[in-house]
Amino acid sequence: MGDSALHLAARAGNVALVQKIFADCDPELVAELTDHQNQDGETALYVSAEMGHVEVVCEILKVCDLHSAFLKAHNSFDAFHIAAKQGHLVVLQELLKAFPALAMTTNSVNATALYTAALHRHIGIVNLLLDTDPRLARIARNNGKTALHIAARLGNVEVVVLLLNKDPATVFRIDRKGQTAVHMASKGHNAEILLELLKPDVSVIHLEDNKGDRPLHVATRKGKTIIVQTLISIEEIDINAINGAGETAFAIAEKLGNEELVNILREAGGVTAEEQVNPPKSIKRFKQTHDVQSQIKQKRRTNMHFHTIRKSSQKLHTEAPVCALADAMFRLPAKLDELLISHVHMLPRGAEDEIPLIKQDLEEIMAILQEHDHPGRAEDRAMTSKCLTKEVRELSYDMEDSVDQYVHAVDTKRRIVPRRKKYKITCRRGKTTARLPEKLKWRIWMANKIREFSVRSQEALQRYSLFNHPGAHGISTSATSTRHDVCFGSWYPTPCGELVGIDGHLNTLEAWLGKDGEQQLKVVSVVGSGGVGKTTLSKELYRRIRGQFECQAFVRTSRKPDIRRLLISLLSQVRPHQTPHTWKLHSLIADIRTHLHDKRYLIVIDDVWATQTWDIINRALPAGNLCSRILITTEVEDVALKCCGYDSRHVLMVKPLGYDDSSKLFFSTAFGLQYECPPELCDAAHNIVRKCAGSPLAMVTVASLLVSQIGKPEKWDYVNEIFGHGLSTYPSSEGMKQVLNLSYNNLPHYLKACVMYLSIYEEDYIIQKDDLVKQWIAEGLILATEEKDKEEISRRYFDELISSRMILPVYTNDNDDVLSCTLHHMVLDFIKHKSLEENFVIAIDHSQTTAPLADKVRRLSLHFGNAEATPPTNMRLSQVRTLAFFGVIECLPSVIEFRLLQVLILHLFGDDESVSFDLTGISELFRLRYLHVTCNATLEVPQTQMRGLQYLETLKIDARVSAVPSDIVHLPSLLHLSLPVGTNLPNGIDHMTSLCTLEYFDINVNSMENVHSLGELTNLQDLRLTCSTVPSSYLKSKIDSMGSILANLSNLRSVTLKSSGILESEPYSMIISCDGLSSVSSPPALLQRFEWLPRICTFSSIPKWISHLNKLCILKIGLRELVSNDVAALRGLPALTVLSLYVRAKPAEKIVFTRAGFLVLKCFKFRCSVPWLEFEVDAMPNLLKLKLSFDAHGVDQHRTIPVGMVHLTGLKEISAKIWGAGANERRAAKSALIDAIKMHSGCPTSSIQCLDGMFSGKDDNNSGIQEEEHLTLQKQYNIKEEDSKKQHDLPKDYMDVAYKQTSSRKSKRITQVRMQVRVGSVQDNSALEDGFSWRKYGQKDIIGSMHPRAYFRCTHRHVKGCPVTKQVQRTSTDPLLFDVVYHGEHTCLDSVGSPATSCGHVAGVEVMSRSRPGVGFVSQSQAACSSQVMSSEVVSGSGSTAGLWGDEIDMPDPDRDDTGISADYLGGYEFDVSAFFA
């Protein structure tokens, strides 16, 4: 074949050999080597591209030139074409990256690679080439056929849609026969393609080929019944058009003898040419051509008009956005223009003239609203302007709803292929009735709507003009001024968390809640009026002392609390690595008590309103004598006394701030700590402070409003004048309404709708920032600009609301970015009042279902958490565009009734978790853009109905999913996808090219194909990976493949790999070597966050590609060891603000941080057995937080404490976790660290925890905190091979794995009973019942066994302390035989039997023995009556016993519902405990 050595290496994909060939080759002969062609004309680049060897292609591209890449083989294909033919997308990407000009090359018949890809149905390649150069769609072969022609002929819908989206005009391109793509589609069987081709312009069905045939003629001649039916169902079709041979479609069908088509065409009105009266052929041809040309000219005029209006609208929006309360209005001009362009042929007569007039009215109204909506002048706005705003918003909603309904109905009817029918007249009892076709009904309906909207818009303008007072558009000259965008300051009242006026209260509470010698549980209450600072006080106290407790939780309640959600929040905080296994109230209470009964805990319950709430929570909190503490905040003094047992000594009264503290808080918020009040503002400022009456909430709210008005005394005087003495007179919520009204009215107009939207949430609900910004976008409240996209603007709005104090931050990350928020109850009341007044959001709980509501509810929020209720009957559900439901599943109304929904938020729960919630019919919500479902039941999602959600942008599911719909990959608008951990996505995710966010993609559960497909999602910006289960044998190869995947994702901003908790939970931990990810050829330049499971995934050193990420802000990574070169690489990252290093090996030398680099670093986490660090003068000048985790066991003191912390001048917070087996060593390390902190001039706050056990870097809050000496038993084993036959499942270089098991339990004796039980059939396992009540708490696969092993515990474990557990596993040799092992003795008294209640058979179950008669909890009489004797034995140890199956029994914790990780899951190897740090 003439292959050279390079050809052979390329064909085999041997990268190393290719590299060696080039290395050994004379540089002057490299070009000759790459240009060499074999007997088939193939170069080595061609061969490697054909075979799909990406690495070889990359190596050859490093040395070859464009001439070599252009060389064609004898089949006229070059390397680019052959890769397109074979479907090698990654190869094409590399070729285009090296030589973009390859995209335009053609073969001998002038076919482009796009044509070739379309011919072979390679969707991804078609998309890539169209993105590279859309002009490719217009290049035709020698026969005149374009890629659209061939895709239409082959019936490839996806390719047709892609081509039309890039260039709709290609539908008019004709080949040498004069045929369009519609003609080609008429020869096939796919009616969907035909309808897609008609979307750009339906007039294309009138075009004739060189023989005068229209598509209907072609379809009839080919005998395509479905195509004929589709064509004649189109309104504009001329069923009796005559071709060049003088034949109609009906005549052709008769000629061919196709009786089926003859009947179809005759019923639709088809006749022959002789049967119809027609003008001469030449005149008809001229008329037809003239009609088509007229439509095209009209379309062009409409397009020009559309672009003119769109340009003017964009200019209007850029200069000053329209009032956000009329949010739908600014979308209407573009929507109406799209209606004119795409559906002009389906609109009623006269609509083309009426719609532009309506648009003109809308633009006039928008101009009026724009002039009226200046910040700071809401009170001066005329009442007519307010009425106009509300009226126009309702008008815009109705118009948008009608247009969407009409377009959807028209498009749906066009996709259906019914038999065409004319008017059918029926006579009944002397009366004649006409059944109108569905299309005609919709056209009549739309005609009436257009007339209605025209009248309403004119009436709105007339009323405004009639009642408005003189002045331009009704605005008095005194009220005219330019618009000022309010520039808010930091969300925190004072820099670095320095709070005002609470130091005395903090010291008091700290003393009450500390170890004051009182061992019993103590409850302390904080009582004060709303807005006085109770929450701020409790949050600061919680931050300071939480490290002293083994378990901590901060929960919020409300006036109408959702107790279920409160308990779930509490349990998830005290037990963070294990999700609640049930949402039942009594089970949640029992789980909390069980977990806390032997632990020292701190619980803060904020904003308790009723003693009944405290009574329920108190049941979940065990008393004990471990110095546990509870802090309650409330506005009700009786509640405060009740919670602390009516002991007034433990009630702290918080009063309003004094004048000095009030002034300090107000001025620090308005001017900052370094600035004094300007003299010209002093009088107004001091008056405002006095009017705030010592309320911190009022002061920070008003001060935030005035932050940007420092140089404008008139603004301060205005606030002083309008701000009355309401707080002095009414210090409660009534007085705060005036403050909030002032703040709200002075918000920028674009924030008002965003604020009112928050009223859909319940009072104590924690709102996630990521969810909220996407909801705002889906609602249309955000308008993109040329500089920023919608999400960026939406996030900025969120931050501005934080700054305005309208919303309160809850959780922040290490970079001080706010991740979630909540609302003060007084703010929420005010927002709900405003929202109800504007009919923006209607929020209803179970006690308000009969309340009077507006006729048309647009956004509905139902809060049915604690009672069964039904939605109000006095409202029209069909107009609702947003539905938020919080409550029990049974109370949820049918979502199908809400046909026009755009946003659907469901937070559901049911007492019976075995039930499922069915989303069948969800596809009928054709306008849906945002769907979020949270549920404790199983979610049943229809498998083939998701494709109907063409506009869905966000899909978030927090629930068990029966199966992910297979057609989810075909949602064209999907931008954000969030699925539960452990979800297996269907194949084909490479089609989801629009995705920007993908969370939680489980790399362990998903197939290798899906993992590689991630590289095709080139629009991804946020990729969140997880590993939910025990690793498979492919895990390391999947992780290594992420290098090439990251190289393809050029738009990536954030990538994280996290564990669901199983892999990180004690008693096991695992290490995976990630050196395969150290090489990324082209790292994403926009990457800002890289977090790669640092506790498990380990790099030998900092990957070189990370040092090139100039925008990287957050880096969390695990290293085998840290050396000076790694520090140098990190020092060069200019934007790094958060750095977290998990280092496994002790440093060989001191790690020194100099003044170079780390200029913007805010947070530094260092976790290592020995923190041998030194900070030189001026090192890390902006560092605010330093977090350490290290082992004090056997370490020299000078290595334990970092040197030079005093040089970190900006340091505000230091936290440390000190591990070690000896309490004395931990205390010594803690004392040395405290002494070092005291030397710091900035007096940073500190939180130091001493934890029992050797260092593992675990970041949970459940680790035992022991101050007394407690030696931990630590078993050390070696990794050994257990089964050589399983070696292929786990390569030797797969990963480094180690398990660490720590136990502080005393040695105890465990009774073990083993037996075999035979059942009657495979399906009937009920015979396994032994008379006791069991609860299943885990299941896992066992190596060498075909069936999993199930784990059960006695249901009386938590109630009566019964310790018995049971293991059940079907044997591999006999499916009717089960191995059963019991551990422990029953202490409950409710049993009615035991595992050996019958002689050999129990209810049809044959009981078989393996060994000697047993002892333990089986009585002698029971054993005697059994012909087949069970076996029991007493085993010493901590619960790990030699098992029945011949391997070591690794029993899960029966108090947990997850089974942990067994030692026998990794391909035949047994992994035991080994120490990480010697």
Please give a structural write-up.
- With 1478 residues, this protein is of the alpha/beta class.
- Among the domains are: 105 residues, Alpha Horseshoe (Serine Threonine Protein Phosphatase 5, Tetratricopeptide repeat), CATH 1.25.40; 158 residues, no CATH class; 152 residues, 3-Layer(aba) Sandwich (Rossmann fold), CATH 3.40.50; 120 residues; 161 residues, WRKY domain (N-terminal domain of TfIIb, Single Sheet).
- It has 46 helices and 44 strands.
- The chain has an 18-stranded parallel beta sheet that branches. Strands 36, 37, 38, 39, 40, 41, 42 and 43 form an eight-stranded antiparallel beta sheet that branches. A five-stranded parallel beta sheet has the order 4-5-6-3-7, sandwiched between helices.
- α31 runs parallel beside α33.
- The chain starts with a helix and ends in an 8-residue tail after the last strand.
- The C terminus is likely disordered.
Q: Could you name the CATH class of the domain at 1300-1460?
A: Mainly Beta
- At the fourth level of CATH, the homologous superfamily of the domain at 1300-1460 is WRKY domain
The secondary structure category is alpha/beta
Number of strands: 44
Main sheet record: 18 strands, parallel
Helix content: 25-40%
The portion of residues forming beta strands comes to 15-25%
* Overall 3D form: globular
Q: Let me know the average pLDDT.
A: 76
- Spatial gap, N to C terminus: 61 Å
